[in-house]
Structures are given as structure tokens and as C-alpha cells.
Amino acid sequence: MNATILVHTNGLTHEEWLCHRRSGIGGSDAAAIAGVSRWKDPFSVYMDKTDKGQPFETNEALYWGSTLENVVISEFMKRSGLRVEPLPVILQHPEVPYLLANLDGIVIDDEGHVGVFEAKTANAFSKCEWEGDKVPDAYMLQVQHYLNVTGYDYAYIAVLIGGNEFQYKRIQRDNEMIQHLMALEMHFWTNHVLAKSPPVPTAQSTELLALLYPGGKKETLILPADSLDLIKAFETHQASEKEAKNLKDEAAAKIKALMGDHETAAIDGHCTIKWTPVSSERFDTTAFKKKHPILAQEYTKASISRRFTVKSK
To answer: Pairing with 147, which of 39, 235, 264, 310 sits 20 to 30 Å away (CA)?
Structure first.
């Protein structure tokens, strides 16, 4: 292995681990910087690395991904016959120290060669992304990032899909992909993180921007004149969005008229259409507040959000 050890992770507090994580670009940042992550964008990574982002919080997907990691590793060893060993360290690229790797483990093949091991969980709706030899783009870049940091020639990625389908795949080192990815990462670190110059936010930044800027300043801010291009773009897309929704609803109405009382329909060789009754129960908050006003007040939690509108003159 060519990488150097930044820190041993055994015994680190969450805050210490987070501090080391923010000192460079990790595998999960690679896809975001390259613009292929569905979870975050370059702006989100910048805010995290400059210590301006929200504290790292787990969620259900992350919790179960972590909880099931050992299950995935155990199943991989059982099915492949290969050995996976833990590697409780954060690694650094030998020449570019801000490129980091925190591996799920290392795998040793039948010839004694060492590679990267990654364990994943995925929901059933993403099954198509794993068909055949396919690996989701974000995970492919994560693995190539790790191969770059470690210098290894191969990796295995194992995934549990929908809780009941297991797959594993071998991924070879792709030097051309690594060169392109490394160039993007170095540009991002130099021209954004070190330069304290944030990249342009994208739609994926919406939730983060709402957390960063909760509002409160009442005075009107005068934006620069070139912001008008953004306003025009917003209004154009807003109009297109409304038109697209109307056309979609119109097409759906015509299909429903054709179906009548039938809950399913099909067009041979093309698709299946379902229009099924859905029963749901909703809590009657108005009636509850009338009957139990004190109790309702006790369990009512205020929520503040910011509504974005554009009104042209």
C-alpha cells in the first residue's frame, strides 16, 4: 500500500473523527465534486470542509447501512471464499495529503493480493442500478478514489439490495478515470476550499441553504444587475414546470377516462397502468384542537420555513 496513515480511528470521539474527515476529500465526497451524487453537491462539500455546514447527523439509511455492514462483510466472505480484514485508520494519498480514505476493509484474494473492500446497502428501487456488471456512478467514483489513495489495483464492492438480494462485484483500477477525478478534486480543493471561494449552489443545496440562512433581516437587499439573468431563468423554468404539469395531468385524465372502473390496464409490450383506490386515515387536528385545546397547545411544535417567490414588475 502506498498510502500513509493520517490517524487511527479506534478510540476517536465523533468530534475528533469529524475534524479529521473535514481536513480533506474522502470517498463519499468524490461523487459530489464530480457532480454525480444524488445526496450532495460541490457547494455542500465546500460548506462541510470549511466548517460552515450543519453537524453530521445520521438518518435511517445511514444507520442501517452501518448496522448491516458486518452482515454484508460476513456474507461476502462466505460466498466468495475471500478474507476481509478491518482497517481502522484514515489514509492519506502519499503525494496529495488532502485526498483521504476511510475504508470499510481490505480484501485479500487467492493469490495474496490486497484490494479495497466496500460494503453497501441499497433499497429495492435502485436494483436496476446494479444489474449485470453495473455499479452506481457515485460508488464507482468512491472506489476509484480509494484505489488512487491506496495504490491498490482492484476492489470488491458487496451490496445487500432491499434486504433480500445480495451481490458482489470486482472493480479494476481505472487510471484514466482516476486522473480525471483527481484533477477535479485538486481543482476543488485549491480553487474553492483553500481560496475560501464557494462553488455555485445547485438544486441539491436547497435544504442546506435553508438551514444556513434562516432569515430574519427585514431590510431589502439590492442584488447586482447581473442577477436578473437568474430571475429570468427561474421564471422561464417555473412557466415550463407549470405547463409540463398541466400536460401531464391532461394525459393522465384521458387515460383514466379510458380505464373507467378498471383498476389496471395494459398496452401489450409497452406498459402496465394502475389506478387503484387508496385508503388513508388522517388525524383531524381541527376537531382535536376544539375538544382538547390545552392538550393540543402542549403538543404543538412551531415550525418556521422560508417561502421563495419572485414577482416581476
So the answer is: 39
237-263 residue pLDDT tens: 888 888 888 888 888 888 888 888 888
DSSP output for 83-125? EEE---EEEE-SS-TTBEE--SEEEE-TTS-EEEEEEEEE-GG
Angle between helices 60-67 and 69-80 (to 10 degrees): 40
Q: What is the pLDDT of residue 208?
A: 47
Which among 134, 106, 109, 114 is positioned nearest to 122, based on CA atoms?
134
Which residues does 130 contact at the CB level (< 8 Å), separation at least 6? Answer: 122, 136, 159, 161, 167
58 has pLDDT over 60: no
CA distance 122 to 116: 19
| 156-201 residue pLDDT tens | 999 999 888 999 999 999 999 999 999 999 999 999 999 999 988 7
pTM greater than 0.70: no
**CA angle centred on 304, ends 300 and 307, rounded to 5°:** 135
Contact predicate 121/160, CB 8 Å: yes
C-alpha cell at 52: 460552515
